[in-house]
Design a protein that fits this description.
By secondary structure, this protein is α/β, with parallel strands linked by helices. The chain is built from 15 helices and twelve strands.
Length: 372
């Protein structure tokens, strides 16, 4: 079974987030407790008790942390990931689906991930989760961890992450490289020379014409991943990316956009949505009763999703499979993740004779008996 510890809708975090805001604290329509948020020490102590209780009552359970704030999301995942079966979709699921897009972008370019250079706009838990997962892959491709991290740079609201900054969280510091301080994203592109920019900023329109043109000037095929949602938060639209790059951009967004017709070509912008990843990983975990949730499971899921894009659609720039076949995509992805779980000795059930039939047999079917 999966238990969701959900900040957005749970009894703990949603209310306490609001009640640290004086406006909401005194709002007569606020249904939450009229108390300020507890300290981090008190909060983590409570979560410790919850996790211990789950292990006692539901020893085969996987805990899914959802919608926790950035610092807590990173800290809590690190706190439990090597002790119990748990994961954070906002960190690992987002990382997995973005990695799938990056894999297919390299297929279009004829490169490998280790050949690319990455610049993030946004440096919260989603960005850090993706960067960490990406670096795990780069190490598998022969880089040292230090070399891998040197390929990743980040901007946040206060500018480029670099060592002179005193406001960085510990988990951001590995991506703070020596560079003159700057708050100019275009200038950062011109000096860092990334091949891929990843928008996780929630700032609509942040990838301006100057940004796309700067990327196009230094890259034959700039990769533009505008992942913030909803639609008005997207860093740029596909039409903007294709037009400003003169058709050179490889693009995906965090929301769905229709095909774009430009200069006699039809481009298919894909949607980097977690629903390609977390249902598949969740199904694999449930079926195998996995002891732990390893990063390799999200890497395998990313690769499995990437492999399901038809060649003809990939050539039109589509980085993700069509959503019309999402159930089958997730099942095929779950099969590959489950195989990895068994191969790594993480399963708490016996290996089935037919893995595909075993996984398909675990899929929920909404069939109801008639009571009339």
């Amino acid at each position: 079974m999966l238990i969701y510890v959900d900040e957005a809708y749970g009894l703990i975090e949603w209310k306490m987030d609001m009640e640290n805001n004086e406006q909401y604290l005194h709002d007569p329509l606020n249904l939450g407790l009229r108390k300020t948020r507890p300290s981090q020490e008190e909060l983590y102590s409570f979560v410790d008790e919850f996790v211990d209780a789950v292990q006692e009552v539901f020893p085969l359970c996987c805990i899914h942390f959802e919608d926790w704030t950035g610092v807590d999301a990173v800290n809590l995942l690190a706190r439990y990931r090597d002790k119990v079966s748990c994961y954070n979709d906002d960190i690992q699921g987002t990382a997995g689906i973005t990695l799938a897009g990056m894999i297919n972008a390299t297929k279009l370019k004829g490169t490998q991930l280790k050949d690319e250079k990455y610049l993030f706009l946004g440096a919260g838990s989603a960005a850090i989760g993706l960067a960490n997962l990406l670096c795990t892959v780069l190490v598998k491709q022969g880089m040292s961890l230090e070399q891998a991290r040197s390929q990743v740079s980040m901007f946040d609201i206060n500018g480029l992450l670099e060592p002179s900054r005193t406001d960085l969280e510990d988990y951001q510091k590995p991506y703070a490289h020596e560079h003159a301080p700057t708050k100019d994203f275009v200038a950062g592109i011109e000096s860092i020379k990334p091949t891929t920019i990843i928008g996780v900023s929630t700032v609509g329109g942040a990838f301006t014409q100057q940004v796309i043109e700067a990327m196009s000037k230094i890259n034959d095929r700039p990769v533009i991943l505008a992942l913030s949602n909803p639609t008005d938060h997207a860093e740029c639209t596909p039409e903007q990316a294709y037009t400003w790059s003169k058709g050179k951009a490889i693009y995906a967004a965090g929301v769905q956009f229709p095909p774009v017709h430009f200069n006699g070509q039809t481009f298919l912008p894909g949607q980097a949505n977690n629903f390609y990843i977390f249902p598949a990983v969740g199904l694999a975990i449930y079926a195998t009763r996995a002891k732990r949730v390893a990063d390799e499971m999200f890497i395998e899921a990313a690769s499995a999703v990437a492999d399901q894009v038809p060649e003809d659609m990939l050539k039109q720039g589509l980085l993700y499979p069509l959503q019309s076949n999402i159930l089958e995509i997730d099942i095929k992805t779950a099969i590959r993740v489950a195989k990895l779980v068994f191969d790594n000795g993480l399963a708490r059930v016996d290996h089935p004779d037919d893995l595909e039939a075993f996984i398909r047999g675990q899929v929920y079917k909404p069939e109801y008996r008639s009571l009339v």
